[in-house]
Design goal:
With 77 residues, this protein is mainly alpha-helical. Helix content is 35%, strand content 8%. It is built from three helices and two strands. The longest helix has 10 residues. Strands 1-2 form a two-stranded parallel sheet. The chain has two domains: 32 residues, no CATH class; 36 residues, no CATH class.
Amino acid sequence: MENHELILQNHELYVYPRLTSTKSSLDNHEKINLIGAPIMQISSSFIRNAIKEQIDVRAMLPENVWEYIDEMNYYRK
């Protein structure tokens, strides 16, 4: 059994849409739930690069996530 099959056998997945999403054979899987939400043009790469450039991204992250990133000095130059 492949990893994705094991995961889907034991867990439900909730998938947030992306602009680059393509249809997959897993789209109709009973344990995959596609979230009907607006597509936001923001990525983890954007967050990391913004932090490197000292751009304030706190409003884009949950408070505890920002605090952890800040405390650990992640993504700084």
